[in-house]
Each structure stands twice: as structure tokens, then as C-alpha cells.
Amino acid sequence: MDFKGSDTLPGPRSEDHLPQTAQAAVKIVIVGGFGVGKTTMVGSVSEIRPLTTEETMTQAGIGVDDNYGSDTKTATTVAMDFGRISITDQLVLYLFGTPGQERFWFLWNGLFEGALGAVVLVDTRRLEVSFDVIGRLEERGVPFVIAVNTFPDGPRYPLADLRTALDLAPDIPIVECDARRRASSRDVLMTLMRFLHSLAMTGALR
């Protein structure tokens, strides 16, 4: 195929180029149940135009996908979201958001390959959808932090009560966030990086 004139494929934008000062890259996965805000978090914090694989929700998902609390949601991730953020001039995070529906969880195998850690986004309106997600991470031995996405109509609980409800180990960080806000999402990623650093210092990071 001859790509000429108006048919020429556009290259990456200048702002999407990897900084020349970057010396190390870390792969981070953002996981959680359906509609908890994974695509929103990747989009809010990414310094490049995020790649998304959202498709319009159809009648086929009725009775299959639990969209409680997400009644106005019209699209859903079917493969992954991808973004990038520079933590320092030398350190870059590659962010991969997973699909939330259980029927797409088979894609997690590839997305978790080489991942150093994960962020588990939690919706207090549907805590139960987080149980299997956390269990899968524990089975894989992937270090993770919990980020409670504060939806306007979501109940607020003390973090200690949430730790008990989610049956989390005492050392696993749990923080509140607003996935729509870049600064809040960045703070979550920094919490994960500090946690990974502490595990590395104690020799607990695999």
C-alpha cells in the first residue's frame, strides 16, 4: 500500500516522545472491578494521549456485567488502557489499565507480564467486586496498593474499617483518591512506588 499525501500515517506527537533523560521504565497495572475508574485514572494522569480500547456497551452485556453504580456508563474497556507518566527525569512509569468484567480477565495474563506492581481501584458502593481482584494479585505475588475512588454518592468509611472488610495485610497501603484528578492519581502512583521501594529495601520484592 502506498502511503502518500493525505493517506500518510501520522507519526507520534512531539509531546508523546519518550524523554531523552529517561534511564529506567517500570510497568504498573491498574486493576479493579467494572466501572471503578481505571480508564479515568489512566487518562487523568498520563502525560501522553492515552490509548484506550473502549467499546459501546450493548444489550449482550445485560445480566452478564454488573454495572450497579455505573448505570450511566455507555462504554467499557475490552482489552486495556495505556498511558505514561514521568516520575522523575530518569524514571518513567508505563500504565496499563485492565478490563473490569470477569469475562475479559483472561487478558490479565499478558498485561501482568513484567509488571512490578499494581493499583487496585475500589468503589465503596461495591466492595465485593474487589475481593476476586485482590485474590488474583495475591496468587500471582504482585505487590499492590489500594486506592479508594471517592464517588460523590459512595459511602465513606474509615480506612481501618475498609482494611478489615478487604482482609488486607497491615503493611499494604490504602489511600483515598479522586481518579478524575491528575494530582490525586499521581499521589496514588507515588504511594505504590514508595511501597515497592520499601519492599525492595527489605528484600521482599521478588
Map the helices and strands.
Blueprint: E1 24-32, H1 38-45, E2 54-56, E3 75-77, E4 81-86, E5 91-97, H2 108-111, E6 117-122, H3 129-140, E7 144-149, H4 159-165, E8 174-177, H5 182-202
Parallel strand pairs: 1-5, 1-6, 6-7, 7-8
Antiparallel strand pairs: 2-3, 4-5
Helix pairs in contact: 1-5
The share of residues in helices is: 25-40%
* Percentage of residues in DSSP E strands: 15-25%
Largest sheet: 6 strands, mixed
**Total number of helical segments?**
5
Order of helices and strands: EHEEEEHEHEHEH
Rg over CA atoms, rounded to whole Å, is 18 Å
Kindly report the average pLDDT value.
81
Termini gap: 46 Å
The strand line-up of the biggest sheet is 4-5-1-6-7-8
Class based on secondary structure composition and strand pairing: alpha/beta
Shape: globular
Uncertain spans: 57-65
Total strand segments? 8
Task: Describe the structure using short key phrases.
about 210 residues, alpha/beta, 6-stranded mixed sheet, two-stranded antiparallel ribbon, 5 helices, about 25% helix, about 20% strand
Can you describe this structure?
- This protein has helices at residues 38-45, 108-111, 129-140, 159-165, 182-202; strands at residues 24-32, 54-56, 75-77, 81-86, 91-97, 117-122, 144-149, 174-177.
- Helices cover 25% and strands 21% of the residues.
- The chain is of the alpha/beta class and 206 residues long.
- Helix 1 crosses helix 5 (182-202).
- Mean pLDDT is 81; it is low at 57-65.
- Helix 4 (159-165) links the parallel strand 7 and strand 8 (174-177).
Task: Please give a quick description of this structure.
The protein is an alpha/beta fold. It has five helices and eight strands; from the N terminus they run βαββββαβαβαβα.
